[in-house]
Amino acid sequence: MEDLKANCVGENGSVIGFDRTFNVGPCFITPTTYKNKAVWHSESNEHPLMLGPTFLHWDGEFETYHTFISHLKRELQSEDIVVGSDAEKALTKALQLEFPSATHLLCTIHMKDNITRYLSEKVGCSMRDRTEIISFIFGEAGIAWADDSATSEFREDRLDDYFIKYPTFQRYYQKHIADKLKRHVQLPLQKGVIDTL
């Protein structure tokens, strides 16, 4: 816990990642991860990813996550942190309740996977269109990298042809993606909280 605190609290602290496992039996495992800023990996020249406090639990309910996250808050004794997770509702609700002033990042890998799965399974979108849509959102010149709202709107306009072709995707994007992308990916990039997706 002291190592987590030393590496994650304060300005330039490491992101504390939360990611619940699935399909490992009836018990869920939610590990925390962070980068140890005191160590460099010799081959990658980056700080290594470390395993932090790990939570074993039997359900994915808000109250269950809240118990774990409120304990972490008591131990960290600070809200000056950056947290990262997927968009699991119970987990994000507990994080927002216990760390309301923390920057909360959403995992773009999970976002890409969710969008790709929706386009494939619910919309029937071709592989070519899925690839281009993901590129328009997360690619180097994608919406996620927009440095202001005008640029974001301009880049979002590139999706218009796909919104016409796949109207259910437009509703999905507007209801489930646009706001989360802006608040939990674009704004942290703009503020310099993170510098890569």
UniProtKB/TrEMBL annotation:
GO terms for biological process: DNA transposition. Pfam families: Transposase_mut. The keyword DNA-binding applies. This is MULE transposase domain-containing protein. It comes from the Eukaryota. Keywords: DNA recombination, DNA-binding, Transposition. InterPro entries: Transposase_mutator (IPR001207). One of its GO terms (molecular function) is transposase activity.
